[in-house]
Amino acid sequence: MGEGHYEVIEGGSIITPKGFFAGGVHCGLKKTDRHDIGIIRCEVPAVAAAVYTTNAFQAAPLKVTRESLQDGRLQAVVVNSGNANACTGQQGEADAYEMRAQAARHLGVAEQDVAVASTGVIGELLKMDCVSAGIEALPARLGSTPQSAEDFSQAILTTDLVKKEICVTVDVNGKKVVIAGAAKGSGMIHPNMATMLAFMTTDAVIEQPALQVLMRQATDSTFNMITVDGDTSTNDILIAMASGMASNDVLNEDHPDWEAFAAGFTYVCQVLAQAIARDGEGATKLVEVSVNGAVSDLSARAIAKTVVGSSLVKSAVFGADANWGRIIAAVGRAGEPVNPESVDIRLGDISVLEASRPVIFDEDAALVYLKGDTVRIVVDLHHGEGKATAWGCDLTYDYVRINAAYRT
């Protein structure tokens, strides 16, 4: 077992937990022939929870999913990429409800037990003839094979270069409980809930309120600690479903193995969050910023996100420039308490600032380090016990190229 008594399942996927099936097809929403609509289905109505974007302009699918989740249960999620169905008025809302109704009918489940999610271009109506054809074709493609999981993972991608998935197992009162996740996200990433789209499955028996609390806690330290470009999507959602087929004693905060389960759940969120940051549009490097010695964890989170989200810091990392001045400037503008005389900064193991004073360092060694595919920046404030880590990516020419022509 790994840290927190969880173990990564190599080759595991969103359908590794007992009771889950998935699939994806190409229905014509994307201009390429990549899959663009997918479904996750559980054998039984599953205990479910979700968190949503804080953007004031929330896409129509979020309204539908909130309604479906009122009783804390779901049996299926239908997801399309290529079109966000956001800012589409009453017609967009009607289309989202129609997606739910069609998915329920073709899957043979209750309409109220289906969630809907969409991602892609904002402000365009869905091509419902394509969506309907895709939903009708999906039940025949549902399965529990590696290809089925692959089809779903591909169906939720937009500008992503790679799929994002992770699966772990945890011992809960002597039984193997599996937790898995799949996500998409590459641009418009500055979550204030979760990420662009993320889905988690588990076969644990768990109380719904406990799952909802755990999801929010895990989100705060993982998905809410990543940024690619400082923009929060209209469609961000994280959904978790628990089939209960592991037959463990019911999990809640008082269960003796709750800490182990929570650690595994949080690890899945963290791996997905890091994968999204690494796959930022045009990115060449994952940037990790750890802040120690803040007045509180909340303060450390704010400072870490300010540093990792700084366009100047991101540009310096892209150029492999050990310009620590941009880092200290971001720390100072985060709006959190700091002692201007006590800050240390390291690039990996290379110390560049001690007690807020520059130190002589090997520029060539720093250049070699910054040219790697992962750059870790450590800031020690020596001002308290708070700590946090945030993840992001460098800012490249390709980011501008991709987003200058997103609709075309």
Automatic annotation (TrEMBL):
<comment type="pathway">
    <text>Amino-acid biosynthesis; L-arginine biosynthesis; N(2)-acetyl-L-ornithine from L-glutamate: step 1/4.</text>
</comment>
<dbReference type="GO" id="GO:0004358">
    <property type="term" value="F:L-glutamate N-acetyltransferase activity, acting on acetyl-L-ornithine as donor"/>
</dbReference>
<keyword id="KW-0808">Transferase</keyword>
<feature type="site" description="Cleavage; by autolysis">
    <location>
        <begin position="194"/>
        <end position="195"/>
    </location>
</feature>
<comment type="subunit">
    <text>Heterotetramer of two alpha and two beta chains.</text>
</comment>
<dbReference type="InterPro" id="IPR016117">
    <property type="entry name" value="ArgJ-like_dom_sf"/>
</dbReference>
<dbReference type="InterPro" id="IPR042195">
    <property type="entry name" value="ArgJ_beta_C"/>
</dbReference>
<dbReference type="GO" id="GO:0006592">
    <property type="term" value="P:ornithine biosynthetic process"/>
</dbReference>
<feature type="binding site">
    <location>
        <position position="184"/>
    </location>
    <ligand>
        <name>substrate</name>
    </ligand>
</feature>
<feature type="site" description="Involved in the stabilization of negative charge on the oxyanion by the formation of the oxyanion hole">
    <location>
        <position position="120"/>
    </location>
</feature>
<feature type="binding site">
    <location>
        <position position="158"/>
    </location>
    <ligand>
        <name>substrate</name>
    </ligand>
</feature>
<keyword id="KW-0963">Cytoplasm</keyword>
<keyword id="KW-0028">Amino-acid biosynthesis</keyword>
<comment type="function">
    <text>Catalyzes two activities which are involved in the cyclic version of arginine biosynthesis: the synthesis of N-acetylglutamate from glutamate and acetyl-CoA as the acetyl donor, and of ornithine by transacetylation between N(2)-acetylornithine and glutamate.</text>
</comment>
<keyword id="KW-0068">Autocatalytic cleavage</keyword>
<protein>
    <recommendedName>
        <fullName>Arginine biosynthesis bifunctional protein ArgJ</fullName>
        <ecNumber>2.3.1.35</ecNumber>
        <ecNumber>2.3.1.1</ecNumber>
    </recommendedName>
</protein>
<feature type="binding site">
    <location>
        <position position="281"/>
    </location>
    <ligand>
        <name>substrate</name>
    </ligand>
</feature>
<keyword id="KW-0055">Arginine biosynthesis</keyword>
<dbReference type="Pfam" id="PF01960">
    <property type="entry name" value="ArgJ"/>
</dbReference>
<feature type="site" description="Involved in the stabilization of negative charge on the oxyanion by the formation of the oxyanion hole">
    <location>
        <position position="119"/>
    </location>
</feature>
<dbReference type="InterPro" id="IPR002813">
    <property type="entry name" value="Arg_biosynth_ArgJ"/>
</dbReference>
<keyword id="KW-0511">Multifunctional enzyme</keyword>
<dbReference type="GO" id="GO:0006526">
    <property type="term" value="P:L-arginine biosynthetic process"/>
</dbReference>
<keyword id="KW-0012">Acyltransferase</keyword>
<comment type="similarity">
    <text>Belongs to the ArgJ family.</text>
</comment>
<dbReference type="GO" id="GO:0004042">
    <property type="term" value="F:L-glutamate N-acetyltransferase activity"/>
</dbReference>
<feature type="binding site">
    <location>
        <position position="195"/>
    </location>
    <ligand>
        <name>substrate</name>
    </ligand>
</feature>
<feature type="binding site">
    <location>
        <position position="408"/>
    </location>
    <ligand>
        <name>substrate</name>
    </ligand>
</feature>
<feature type="active site" description="Nucleophile">
    <location>
        <position position="195"/>
    </location>
</feature>
<feature type="binding site">
    <location>
        <position position="403"/>
    </location>
    <ligand>
        <name>substrate</name>
    </ligand>
</feature>
<comment type="pathway">
    <text>Amino-acid biosynthesis; L-arginine biosynthesis; L-ornithine and N-acetyl-L-glutamate from L-glutamate and N(2)-acetyl-L-ornithine (cyclic): step 1/1.</text>
</comment>
<dbReference type="GO" id="GO:0005737">
    <property type="term" value="C:cytoplasm"/>
</dbReference>
